[in-house]
Amino acid sequence: MKKNIAILMGGYSSEFDISINSGNVVYKHIDRDKYTPYRVHITKERWFYVDDSDATHTIDRNDFSVLIDGEKITFDAAFNTVHGTPGEDGLLQAYFRLIRIPQTSCDYYQAALSFNKRDCISTLKPYGIPTASNYFLNQGDPIDPEAIINTVGLPCFVKANKAGSSYGISKVKILQELLPAIEHAYKEDDEIIIESFLSGTEVSVGVINFNGEDIVLPITEIVSHNEFFDYEAKYLGQSEEITPARLSEEDTEKVKELALKVYQTLKMKGFSRSEYIFHNGEPHFLELNTNPGLSEASILPQQALKAGISLQELFTNVIEACINKPAWSE
């Protein structure tokens, strides 16, 4: 009997449209011999299923069911493609754990931790994971530009602490640019992380659990045509994404080992994509995404295809893994 799979997409953040794209790719490539997929949009106003005629049906959040033509539909699993909140920060993960519906991304604590860039960095540092120098701000904190620059130097990056797709990020080259960059970041989040500039080759590393084993996918080198890997570079063609990356065998092994260590130290499962910059010959951790983009052009699907894993195989594996070993069984 086919399993009913809710493909979650949308969310409450600036990444809404990107998430819709990811969810529609999962809907397109999911194995219909095994699963009956349902596109479920998550919005601030309501959660609803969108059928093939684009009619909407409200989700009952008491048990995550939907009434279609008088029939109550329940789900065997939720495929989480919601970028940002509430899909990547632990809220949906906790909800599904409470009502005991398996979902495909990591558990709620790991999601919340990795979504908070500064908490994630603070957790990884004692394990010897190299990172940039950083300075943290909460909205309302006094801002001391001289102290910030003395800590991180120039140029530096000002980032919204809990945001994806390079929203709320600026590269600051001179002191006068710092305060406007902070104001820009506060539009996305009430917490900010300011980081030292790391020069070197930037790479993106997918780590997934596939057939019960944690594996590192072929590495992607990021060559941005802009100042850094910003929104335009990621989504509007202003970058080159080269898979496999043009790294030496030694550097390839260095970053693969580091990415696997990060994944396992944080007790991740499902998909992940982490970012690194080779600074002074050593890979430095930037951030980790637990719900990376899943469009055909996105980095993780590119890497999976290079590894000989089709999108259908990738999606089937993560669905079966979450059903066979739900979070509450661990």
Descriptive overview:
By secondary structure, the protein is an alpha+beta fold. The chain folds into three domains: 3-105, 3-Layer(aba) Sandwich (Rossmann fold), CATH 3.40.50; 112-128 and 199-328, ATP-grasp fold, B domain (D-amino Acid Aminotransferase, Chain A, domain 1, 2-Layer Sandwich), CATH 3.30.470.20; 134-196, 2-Layer Sandwich (Dna Ligase, domain 1), CATH 3.30.1490.20. It has ten helices and 17 strands. It has helices spanning 16-29, 91-99, 108-115, 117-124, 145-152, 178-186, 231-235, 249-265, 299-306, 311-324, and strands at 3-10, 35-42, 47-50, 56-60, 65-68, 71-73, 77-80, 134-138, 156-160, 169-172, 191-196, 202-210, 213-216, 220-224, 239-242, 271-279, 282-289. The chain has a seven-stranded mixed β-sheet with strand order 6-5-4-3-2-1-7. Strand 12 (202-210) and strand 13 form a beta hairpin. The longest helix is centred in the last third of the chain and has 17 residues, at 249-265. The protein is globular. It catalyses: 2 D-alanine + ATP = D-alanyl-D-alanine + ADP + phosphate + H(+). This is D-alanine--D-alanine ligase.
What are the SSEs and their pairings?
Elements: E1 3-10, H1 16-29, E2 35-42, E3 47-50, E4 56-60, E5 65-68, E6 71-73, E7 77-80, H2 91-99, H3 108-115, H4 117-124, E8 134-138, H5 145-152, E9 156-160, E10 169-172, H6 178-186, E11 191-196, E12 202-210, E13 213-216, E14 220-224, H7 231-235, E15 239-242, H8 249-265, E16 271-279, E17 282-289, H9 299-306, H10 311-324
Parallel strand pairs: 1-2, 1-7
Antiparallel strand pairs: 2-3, 3-4, 4-5, 5-6, 8-11, 9-10, 9-11, 12-13, 12-14, 12-16, 14-15, 16-17
Helix pairs in contact: 2-3
